[in-house]
Amino acid sequence: MTPQTEPYDYIHDGAAIYARSFAIIRAEADLSGLGEAEARVVVRIIHACGMVDVVKSIRMSPDFVSSARAALLAGKPILCDANMVAHGVTRARLPADNPVICTLRDPRTPVIAREIGNTRSAAAMDLWGDQLDGAVVAIGNAPTALFHLLEMIRAGAPRPAAVIGMPVGFVGAAESKEALAEFGDLPFIIVRGRLGGSAMAAATVNALASEAE
Amino acid sequence: MTPQTEPYDYIHDGAAIYARSFAIIRAEADLSGLGEAEARVVVRIIHACGMVDVVKSIRMSPDFVSSARAALLAGKPILCDANMVAHGVTRARLPADNPVICTLRDPRTPVIAREIGNTRSAAAMDLWGDQLDGAVVAIGNAPTALFHLLEMIRAGAPRPAAVIGMPVGFVGAAESKEALAEFGDLPFIIVRGRLGGSAMAAATVNALASEAE
């Protein structure tokens, strides 16, 4: 075979790829009934997962975007259940150099997990303390983390400004997200059912962080 | 409202959640025609995305699992296009304390990107050098990274032992994965079409890393 260095025809420019991607999404996805800010969030979630139909599974409270965006503008932290979520947040988009925090690998986490009889993902949240007050919480992995967060708030923990509830999978994911949506008086976004994941959760943060598409 | 601390009924034990998840996946997914090792990979990919139907989009070469697994047992590195992929690899499952490498945030990467006229994701691969020889490559984000990897190999770069080709999205993702599958003589797995992502790519590595489910 004769070596070739450029046999493939593809767009090499990152900004052009983003622009073309968002144009395809806006042409294909049914964004009717969404405000412009909500649509921006949905478009980024679609971009993260490659499925325009995911819009049908997204549900958010009317105050979600405004509450989450105000928190980010005020410099509040983004608290994540998984390191993959934290690493998916584009730091350059954040409006106030917001801290992006994941306590899953804190050495105290496995100790707390044994004490409370829950997963490490759930236990990690017990280390958030007062940082939870007015924060944006992004859960993209563990249903137990989302359930435990709701338990903590019911028990008197500080209230976050908004909760991105997008754990993925087959055991507890759907149920934990419905529990968030039904919690009441807590701004939220969920992807219903089994779908979700760290990429969608991080994409939601990235959409909220800047109005630039 | 009376505060309640444990209003939700859910499984708190991580191992039990994994076991139940994998049982549901094996009950629902059509794994016919797959060997046991291939099925383990597919089950973990399904677990990562919440979609049993993704099995229809997965294609792998007959030598993919054996070649990738031998590389991991030999201590070869896992080279990732995105930090989210690297952070999704469960270090405790790796058989030989394998290095997990992502060069996207190397300070040289944006310089190379300008030089070669490609994205930072593609440019980052030019820093892999001889580490590519016999490595497991996991691409879960950027089509340009997968295209550029194939260009590098055609131009004489060291050959990896296996390529996990799972960029996600609307521009170039499908095309780059078909190019990998058609490359010839390069063990591969792809998720066809727009689907993919860092979670699926990392799940593939985690499935290869240990036979424990």
Key terms for this structure?
6-stranded mixed beta sheet; homodimer; disordered N terminus; Rossmann fold; 213 residues
Could you characterize the architecture of this molecule?
2 copies of one chain form a homodimer. Chain A is of the alpha/beta class and 213 residues long. Chain A has one domain (56-209): Cobalamin biosynthesis CobH/CbiC, precorrin-8X methylmutase (Rossmann fold). Chain A contains 9 helices and 6 strands. A 6-stranded mixed beta sheet of chain A has the order 1-6-5-4-2-3, sandwiched between helices. In chain A, α2 runs antiparallel to α9. Residues 1-5 of chain A have low confidence and may be disordered. Chains A and B meet through α1, α2, α4, α6 and α7 of A and α1, α2, α4, α6 and α7 of B. Chains A, B: One of its GO terms (molecular function) is precorrin-8X methylmutase activity.
